[in-house]
Design a protein that fits this description.
- By secondary structure, this protein is of the alpha/beta class.
- It has helices at about 15-25, 30-45, 80-90, 135-150, 165-180, 225-235, 250-260, 295-300, 305-329, and strands at about 50-55, 60, 70, 95-100, 120-125, 130, 155-160, 185-190, 195, 220, 240-245, 265-270, 280, 285-290.
- The strands form 4 sheets. The chain has an 8-stranded mixed beta sheet, sandwiched between helices.
- A hairpin with a 4-residue loop joins strand 13 and strand 14 (about 285-290).
- It starts with 16 loop residues before the first helix and ends with a helix.
- Bound molecules: ligand PAZ.
- The site of ligand PAZ has 13 residues, from helix 3 and strand 11.
């Protein structure tokens, strides 16, 4: 088998996406992932429901094949979990492909909270009865009803990933399964995906020993998977990618560069420290800043409440432009 170094496609240390899939082993639960997704997509194709494939949370980069240590990132999946709820509200069926144990739609209101743990939401009524603490009942009734509405109508499918490789195999497979929905599918790529990794061929098999002294790591660049995603895997769907920066001067230029390089439809640009208050929605012909006002913040409005309707509107246009193209043929 060729080594990663022999397969560099452009002399800059980046391998071709196809080569990545040849050189890495698919996750063992890929067949189960595919079966669940096939059934969900079939169901919604028959019901003519629009479907959004959301990726959420961060990918890990293992340093050893038998992994003790890995590189991680900051993302806890808030953007993805929150967005899923607003897409459900807008009538979409949602595939929520998330980092295992990151925030999930609806559950997010009661998890990952530094001051309130699961048991704090409960009170003991008598020896045999436990109930929701009355201070949380009103809000919980609303969340529970929306959650039941999504699950009883089979409109929310939860699928997970952990490593970068796991994510990329599932992204490829998942987008190809959704491709049959053509323009009715939206791909909302909010996961924080590592740009660097250790190819399995270069990875230590066992736990790296500290007796070897200081550890020097060399990471390869992750292939640009948006290229095949836009041109082959999901070419008919509406593709929304995210661009995260910490330097405000780079944000819009890098987002525009991504649109030009990959040729997809929308980039949502956000800054690390203000991502919950402001995002910029960028298309080839438009650029709109979506921000929460001080009043919105005081009323606990979430930025996704403003962002998702805009994307649904862009999706409306995408679907009708496709219908127009079909009529003209
Ligand atoms: O998961 P989270 O709510 O903590 O963060 C969301 C986010 C910043 C990861 C997302 O909005 C985003 O920008 N995703 C793409 C990151 C990137 O440029 O790879």
């Amino acid at each position: 088998m060729p080594t990663a170094d022999q397969l560099l496609d452009n002399g800059q240390g980046v391998i071709d996406p196809d080569v990545f899939f040849e050189m890495n082993t698919p996750p063992t639960n890929l067949p189960e992932f595919e079966a669940k997704l096939e059934a969900f997509v079939d169901y919604h194709q028959k019901n003519k429901t629009r479907l959004v494939f959301i990726t959420s949370g961060g990918t890990t980069v293992p340093l050893e094949n038998q992994t003790v240590r890995f590189i991680d990132n900051f993302s806890n999946g808030h953007r993805g979990a929150c967005s899923a709820e607003y897409f459900l509200e807008a009538g979409y069926a949602v595939v929520f492909m998330h980092r295992q144990f990151s925030l999930q739609p609806f559950h997010r209101h009661y998890t990952h909270n530094a001051s309130t743990g699961f048991l704090d939401y409960l009170v003991q009524k008598d020896e045999d009865t436990i109930a929701v603490n009355p201070q949380y009942t009103e809000k919980m009734k609303v969340v529970l009803s929306k959650y039941h509405n999504a699950t009883k109508n089979n409109r929310l499918l939860l699928l997970d990933f952990v490593t970068l490789s796991d994510y990329l195999f599932k992204l490829k497979s998942g987008t190809r399964i959704l491709a049959r929905l053509q323009e009715k599918a939206m791909y909302y790529l909010a996961a924080a995906v590592s740009d660097f990794f250790v190819p399995s061929q270069k990875m230590h098999e066992h736990k790296i020993q500290s007796s070897g002294g200081a550890l020097t790591l060399t990471l390869d660049q992750v292939p640009k998977f948006l290229t095949p995603l836009v041109s082959v895997w999901a070419s008919k769907g509406l593709i929304v990618s995210f661009k995260l920066e910490t330097d405000a001067n780079l944000l819009v230029p890098k987002a525009r560069q991504a649109l030009t390089r990959y040729g997809h439809q929308v980039v949502v640009a956000n800054m690390l420290n203000t991502r919950k208050q402001t995002v910029t929605v960028i298309t080839k012909s438009s650029q709109e800043v979506v921000s929460l006002t001080p009043d919105d913040l005081a009323n606990h409005v979430e930025i996704e409440d403003r962002l998702i309707p805009q994307l649904v509107h862009i999706h409306d246009g995408w679907i009708s432009s496709d219908a127009t193209k079909a009529c003209q043929q």
